[in-house]
Amino acid sequence: MRHDVKNGDVVVLIDTSYRKYIVDTTGKTDKIKGVGVLDPTILIGKTYGSQIQIGTKLFWILLPSLQDNLQSIQRKAQIILAKDAAIIIMSCSINAGDIVLEAGTGSGSLTIALASAVAPDGQVISYDKREEFLTHAMKNIEAANLGKYVTPRVQDVTEGITETHLDAIILDIPNPWDAIEHVWNALKTGGYFASYSPLISQVEKTVKTLRGLPFIEIKTIEQLQRELIVSDYGTRPSFNMLGHTGYLTFARKIL
Amino acid sequence: MRHDVKNGDVVVLIDTSYRKYIVDTTGKTDKIKGVGVLDPTILIGKTYGSQIQIGTKLFWILLPSLQDNLQSIQRKAQIILAKDAAIIIMSCSINAGDIVLEAGTGSGSLTIALASAVAPDGQVISYDKREEFLTHAMKNIEAANLGKYVTPRVQDVTEGITETHLDAIILDIPNPWDAIEHVWNALKTGGYFASYSPLISQVEKTVKTLRGLPFIEIKTIEQLQRELIVSDYGTRPSFNMLGHTGYLTFARKIL
Amino acid sequence: MRHDVKNGDVVVLIDTSYRKYIVDTTGKTDKIKGVGVLDPTILIGKTYGSQIQIGTKLFWILLPSLQDNLQSIQRKAQIILAKDAAIIIMSCSINAGDIVLEAGTGSGSLTIALASAVAPDGQVISYDKREEFLTHAMKNIEAANLGKYVTPRVQDVTEGITETHLDAIILDIPNPWDAIEHVWNALKTGGYFASYSPLISQVEKTVKTLRGLPFIEIKTIEQLQRELIVSDYGTRPSFNMLGHTGYLTFARKIL
Amino acid sequence: MRHDVKNGDVVVLIDTSYRKYIVDTTGKTDKIKGVGVLDPTILIGKTYGSQIQIGTKLFWILLPSLQDNLQSIQRKAQIILAKDAAIIIMSCSINAGDIVLEAGTGSGSLTIALASAVAPDGQVISYDKREEFLTHAMKNIEAANLGKYVTPRVQDVTEGITETHLDAIILDIPNPWDAIEHVWNALKTGGYFASYSPLISQVEKTVKTLRGLPFIEIKTIEQLQRELIVSDYGTRPSFNMLGHTGYLTFARKIL
Predict the structure, then answer these.
(1) In the 8-state DSSP scheme, what is residue C53?
(2) DSSP-assigned letters across all residues of C115-167
(3) Is the same domain home to C41 and C159?
(4) Distance CA C184, CA C169 (A)
(5) What is the distance between the alpha carbons of residues C141 and D92, in angstroms, rounded to a whole number?
(6) CB contact under 8 A, C200 and B236
(7) Which of A135, B68, B135, D45 would you call most buried, defined as having the most Cβ atoms within 10 angstroms of its Cβ?
């Protein structure tokens, strides 16, 4: 069974070096860096999984994966990587239908991962006190076709949370400890808390604040990811490795 | 808003050392190791997030998290840990509604994580050629209340895959390379492949077989997870760390 | 050229599980746990590299390596492992003839590594304020045949350092920052400082104190070591790995 | 006690960004990249640990550390880093007076570390089949003032080893397994073998060859090193980290 690009699809073009370009077939003819001038309507009717030549280059046409969406976002701030987003979603038991709050939105990378996890009937409420970040992030989220699962809100999470009975709250702000009392009030019983912090002092303050409130299973981890390179020459770990992204602190609300 | 245990709920009892016991309120009075003799109906009407005394010990009552379910399964084989399951689900873009095949089932730990991700309208088809493993795993999956999202099948994946147009296929078998041609046939275009292998030679054979077929974005990673311990005495990484679980190899089907 | 055990040699007996027993051929007949009753004089005249049967077990006879000595010490406290001792010696440019101060002595494991590095014409001055630790450590150091390179001293390094113009000073105490002004005074210009601390707060205080004095190249690292297991079954990283030992902070004195 | 630069000293100039320049006071006026035109004799009589202005820049004057020497070598090939050299020296119990063979020489970085360890009365015999590498490496070794401890030899170690009764042999060649029988013959009983290999297949062949000969304590490890950054802003692991350098395989000769 072949599957063709339809009008309205958002697709990813992947070149032979695995660089990725998200394209909306309803968009206008535009110059895309790395692709050239492209009229998106020429993609309609092409078969998914086949290659198309644009200018002198060949591109595979696929529906965007979550990774494609994450790798294609325009960054305005340090983003949370897939390896960390994956553990957050798993550790917070985030599933379809959940109502989840995130603050701050940043460039929207975690928002995209969360929106994929709560779709098709959940919502991500995303706070950022900086309106220009929310506007920018929503463009990335719309490009990933996930806008309908995200409610942006210009709000400082350390000054209060409007929502209640939330399934999970995830913080990526410099001072998560200032929001934790609000977090406890806004979570449903048994709800999940996660915080992403690059600095050890941030972890310490967050953990100590969590311990002063009815939370259990307070735990902090870091994830290291290393590629294994298989070549004709032999197999070895990649020389390139990120030494650190952020610490992840988790907790669960009790009464 | 308080939230009480209802007849039919499956709950987790968590003791003050964070040991966990999954209990079905429709079950019979039974002796549970670590809890004592328990009539599950006494839990009905208790408030989620509160503590209950059973014998001389106190237990919090909560709805089971995905981690609670994973940590409570009876192991008959080495299980895939949450850190690896999380990356598999994220890297394969597994979402609500997806139809995913897994082989082999083992103790059902990955099955539970996959079932959570495809609920409420997807399915996990789980192959194992050993019927006793499937039977055992289904008990774990039922205990996690996820049975309706899993179709067990006594089948050797290296001998063929019955289903087609699958969103993703995940292998945890000793010889994944022997199944890869079947995998390509059974995946939809753009579908995702993942394989979990502890040994480097397994990775090499898998990657080389993938390269001989129309797959792109073939990549192998390993995940290391380390806890950061925050105590009154000071903060430090945990002395305990798993040196290795398995390598994760990913690929995506093209035409 | 065969090489035989002579009267006066200190040897290591290694069983087929690679457990090691340091034996002084001038010692008395004694019961050694894991070996049995042994008259050390029976070893004299045996060929190095050959096996000897003692009771029902076979043992290789070798001259002790540095690792044999480190693995055979009686522990009274957490010891500094070979991987960390190696980096300390390398980073502090410790060579034959150097005069090096260490505090505290602990069980003498780092002392043994340092003594090997400064032999045959250097000295390790080893401070510990707890006389029973010094006494115990000196037994380990004598067992490694390195006593003549070590000067033990019952002294609290945070209260002052008697020696001057030292080539290097290495601290393994809970509060290294309290000794750093003494360290600066006692080092020769260009001399090396190293500190071993398990906790991050210890590193922070140490680094900040170093920055307030004329030290350059202040740097903190951690070392992770993982074994690669090669077997007929396949190759993989070891499941066992130490998640953390201690952070190593280095600096060099200027004027 | 002040300590001044004397005619004949080799010194290191360290700028305020910790870039390092090894300078021989007996050298000629020369243009040094990063320093400018320098007449080395102006350094004579300056005090070690003080700063000197050259052009518009300030430099500390110190005796070169082992790390300074390693960081200053001109690279013609991938070098063995200090973290790996340190573990090799420690694991092979290399001490003053030892006679050690190394092959291949490469750029001479491991040679420098070994020469420091065997000084003042040992020797490093360094084989490389490529004469231009030996010539280049000897310049680096002379610059580190360690030439008298190194005997270069244009020889392919897989074709035979001339020396016997060696204390240790360290291989950094693509095919160490081809030299291991020669290694066994050339080592003294109880002597140490080490091999540095980036690829897993190299490790496998090496370990299997070692197992076919009288060697014990065959073990392969990898070392990961990560910096901990302490700043006013907070403490965190470095984002930069080498994912892999090489695997280190060790063994000890028996009869």
Answers:
(1) E
(2) HHHHTTT-EEEEEES-HHHHHHHHHHHHHTT-GGGEEEEE--GGG-----SEE
(3) no
(4) 9
(5) 19
(6) yes
(7) B68
* A239 closest CB neighbour out of D199, D200, D242: D242
- Could you read off the pLDDT of A185-238 as tens digits, one per residue? 999 999 999 999 999 999 999 999 999 999 999 999 999 999 999 999 999 999
- Can you list the alpha helix ranges (DSSP code H) found in D146-235? 180-186, 200-211
The pLDDT tens digits for B98-153 are: 999 999 999 999 999 999 999 999 999 999 999 999 999 999 999 999 999 999 99
Count of domains in chain C? 2
From the list C86, C216, C247, the residue facing D86 with the nearest CB is C86
* In-domain check, residue D76: yes
pTM summary value:
0.95
**CATH at residue A46:** 3.10.330.20
Owning domain of residue D166: 69-253
D225 has a chain C CB within 8 A of its CB: yes
Which of D69, D189, D201, D226 is best to mutate for the C interface (most C CBs within 10 A)? D189
Instruction: Give contacts of D243 with chain A, Cβ < 8 Å.
Output: 226-227, 237-241
> Is residue A45, in this structure, part of any structural domain at all?
yes
A244 → closest Cβ in D222, D234, D237:
D237
The pLDDT score that the predictor gives to residue D127 is 98
Query: Cβ neighbours of residue A60 under 8 Å, at least 6 residues apart?
Result: A13, A14, A49, A50, A51, B216, B254
Q: Which residues of C37-66 are buried (b: 16+ CB within 10 A; e: fewer)?
A: ebebeebeeeebbbbeebeebebbbbbbbb
For β-strands B150-154 and B123-128, DSSP reports them as parallel
Task: Tell me the H-state helices in B73-130.
Answer: 82-91, 109-118
Instruction: List chain C residues with CB under 8 Å of D120.
Output: 96-97
Judge whether C52 is closer than 8 Å to chain D, CB to CB.
no
- CA geometry: angle at C55 spanning C49 and C58, to 5°? 25
Among residues D146, D139, D157, the alpha carbon closest in space to that of D101 is found at D157
Same domain? D78 vs D203: yes
Indicate if B32 and B95 belong to the same structural domain: no
Note whether C131 and C207 are same-domain residues: yes
Residue D93 contacts C, CB cutoff 8 Å: yes
- Determine whether the interchain pair B199/C234 forms a contact, defined as Cβ–Cβ distance below 8 Å: yes
Nearest by Cα to D10 from D51, D48, D54: D48
Tokens of D230: 């302490």
Distance CA C243, CA C106 (A): 22
Q: How far is A242 from chain D (nearest CA, A)?
A: 6
What is the DSSP code (8-state) at residue D151? Answer: E
Q: Is A97 on the interface with B (CB under 8 A)?
A: yes
pLDDT at D123: 98
- Check if A148 contacts B (Cβ < 8 Å): no
Report residue C79's pLDDT band, with 50, 70 and 90 as the boundaries. confident
Q: Which residues of D touch C224 (CB under 8 A)?
A: 223-226
Express each pLDDT in A4-57 by its tens digit: 999 999 999 999 888 899 999 998 999 988 899 999 999 999 999 999 999 899
> Which of A45, A64, A83 is at the close of a domain?
A64
C76 with C172, same domain: the answer is: yes
Contacts of A241 in chain D (CB under 8 A): 241-244
Q: Looking at the structure, do residues B28 and B53 belong to the same domain, yes or no?
A: yes
- Measured in angstroms, the CA of C76 and the nearest CA of chain B are apart by 19
CB proximity B227 to C under 8 Å: yes
Is D104 found in the same domain as D26? no
Cβ contact, residue pair C253, D165, below 8 Å = no
> CA–CA distance from B240 to each of A55, A88, B243 (Å)?
54, 21, 9
CATH of the domain at B244: 3.40.50.150
Nearest to B220 among A97, A219, A228 (CB): A228
Residue A151 shares a structural domain with residue A218: yes
